[in-house]
Each structure stands twice: as C-alpha cells, then as structure tokens.
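User: I'll paste a sequence; please echo it back and then give the predicted structure.

Assistant: Echoing your sequence first, then the prediction.
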Amino acid sequence: HVQLVESGGGSVQAGGSLRLSCQASGYTYSDYCMGWFRQTPGKEREGVAAIDGVATMFYADSVKDRFTISRDTSKNTLYLEMNSLKPEDPAMYYCAFRHGYYCYSESWTRGYDYGGQGTQVTVS
C-alpha cells in the first residue's frame, strides 16, 4: 500500500522560494506517474506538475519556468522546487501517485490513486 507524506511548506514573501518533499513508501518506484497538486478553499484541486517513469515532466502553465519537479530514487522522495512565488500560489499542496509508467500530456492531471495529507504554502 502506497503511503505519501508531504513536508516543506511554510510562509514566504512574494518572490521567495520553497522546496516541498513527498516521502513515499510501499511501492515500486518506476511504476508510477507522480504529481503535485494544490487546492485553496472553494476551488477545485489543480494539477501543478508531474513526472513519470522516464522522467518526462509536465507543468501547469501558471507555474512553468518557476517550479521544478524532481525525484530522488535513492530516497524514495518526490520534490517540488518553487521559485519566484507569487500571491496566487498559496494553497495546500499535495503529492499523488498514479499507477502506470507514463503520465501522458493529455491526462497527467487526473486519475491518481494515492495522495498525501498535504503541506500548506503561504505567500505574503
């Protein structure tokens, strides 16, 4: 059973940076599409970024060139490096895994099987 635990959230000033981590257990590392999502109260969960088994990365237009998704297979950890944070970026950020080696450009934002509890990001 896949378990995901996010960390690294916090409060930063606009223009600042944060690195989120997602510690994963209970899976075979290369068999999943892995993603980051965010949600604010009253809004739908939004796909932020994803990375698949061949390290193809996908990003929402709103975070391209500012956020970077990566993974460390030796640590079973997924990361989201967030730079140049904007007032519209605050949200609860979640990591999620989806069965399947590839994420696919047309579907990387949906159909995830496992998710964590989230870590809060605030921008002042």
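The radius of gyration is 13 Å. Residues 3 and 39 are 20 Å apart (CA to CA).
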